[in-house]
Structures are given as structure tokens and as C-alpha cells.
Amino acid sequence: MSEAVVETKGLTKDFRGFRAVNNVDLTVARGTIHALIGPNGAGKTTCFNLITKVLPPTSGRIFYEGHDITAARPHQVARMGLVRSFQISAVFPHLTVLENVRVALQRKLGTSYHFWRAESSVAVLDGEAMDLLEQVGVAQYARLTAGELPYGRKRALEIATTLALEPKMLLLDEPMAGMGREDIARISALIRRVAKNRTVLMVEHNLSVVADLSDRITVLARGEILAEGTYAEVSSDRAVIEAYMGTGAGSAAAPAAAEAGHG
After folding, report:
1. What average pLDDT does the chain have?
2. Could you tell me how far CA 69 lies from the centroid of its own chain?
3. Residue 231: which residues within 8 A CB-CB, separation 6 or more?
4. Model pTM?
5. Alpha-carbon distances of 246 from 81, 225, 228, rounded to whole Å
6. Coil/strand/helix, residue 144
7. DSSP H helical segments within 143-180, as ranges?
8. What is the tens place of the pLDDT at every residue in 170-224?
9. Domains present along the chain, CATH in parentheses
10. CB neighbours of 110 closer than 8 A, spacing ≥ 6?
11. DSSP state of 200
């Protein structure tokens, strides 16, 4: 087994008597693309929120590169290199594409919130910002405002701003949500490219994407780990088929049903 970047042990989260995540032991190995999948209400996004410290766990422990981060704050784990995206594209719509990435890069200068500074004071970051935009394929839109971008290009811009934070591990929450086929192909290729020297954990409903990108897959159902393995292993697992389709469903139908489900 490769060295673990993220590990959870007995991770549990209750919301007023409802157990959203129950005793989850998850291991994400360094240098892999690991997918977290499951039917509606399985606890996938709650797991993400626990790992990135958006939510505190009810019980259990979270480790990042061997360090216990259970009590850490979101900004602390982000500075350690554990960086996430969200289901809803999070860009500044009235800033240009270049300015969006530059804001993320300003952390290095210690001027992240100094929006009143003269533009010349941050122009030193333009070259690095353009390099990041080249990496994600949106450099030609650098001077447009982010609000003008098509949805798929906004998601690519969001990945660029995430990369500006120099993550060691990327957590991508439904990166293909709301995309057409062409955008899905483009963002899939982008994820594969940026994962070459990073670890990626992603929540994704599109099982064609999961099958294409993932080294390992963890299936959640009702807040618990139902199965884990390669796509071939989990897609033929009887418990996984029943979780997606109901008792007695055929294995060939399970991936198609999962593609149709969201949440």
C-alpha cells in the first residue's frame, strides 16, 4: 500500500440525531486519484466537509500526512496544502480571469486582502498567473471578466485559482456538475494533467468520468463505506448494485442508473 496522504479513523458526524457519516475509515494514497461515490444522501459531501474542516466531526480522527488535523481550522489545513473546490463555481465574476488567479497568488506577497493597492504592486504576479491559465486552457480569456466565461471554463478557472495555492492534495467536489459532454472531456483531461504530481480526492456522479480517471473508488451508502476497490470491482459488487438500483437489479444496469442520479 502506498503512503497515505489522508486517513480517517472512525469518522462520524451527527446532525440533531441523524447520523450522516458513520464510522468511516478512509485511506487516500499519495499520487492517486481517489473517487468517493454513492447514491443520494450517502454522506459524500459531508465527508469532504469533515476532511477539510468545514465541519467538526462528532467523533473519530482525521490525519493528513501523518499529522492529526482533527482539531485544525479550515485555513490551517489549506496552508498545509489540503485545498478543495466546491460544487458551485466560486470565482469573482466582476474581476478579469487574470485578476481572479492573481488574487489567489497574492497570498505569497502578504497582500491577499489589500484590494486598494495599486495594480502595479501585484503586476509581478502576472507571469505566474498566465502560466496557470495556460495550464488549465483559459489563457486566451485572461482579459475577460470571469462572469463572461462559459460554465465549463469557469470551472477550469476555479482549478487554476486552486492551483495558485500550491496544493499537495486537491479535493474536487462534483467537478463535472452541470457540464456538457465537451466540457466534461476538457475538465477530465485537466484533472488528469494536474494530478500527475498531486493527490486527488473527488466526489463525482458521472461514473464514466470515475471509471476513466480513478485509481481507487470508495462507495458510500447511508453514511458508511459499502465497498472499495477499482471501478471493475465496485461496479460488479452486489451490495453496490442494490444500493443504486434496489434489490435484484442487474449489474449491467447499475452504472447507467448511477449516471442518472445526483446529490
Report:
1. 85
2. 18
3. 207, 210, 211, 214, 217
4. 0.83
5. 40, 17, 19
6. coil
7. 151-163
8. 999 888 888 888 889 989 999 998 898 899 999 998 889 999 999 999 999 999 9
9. 1-81+167-263 (3.40.50.300), 91-165 (no CATH)
10. none
11. E
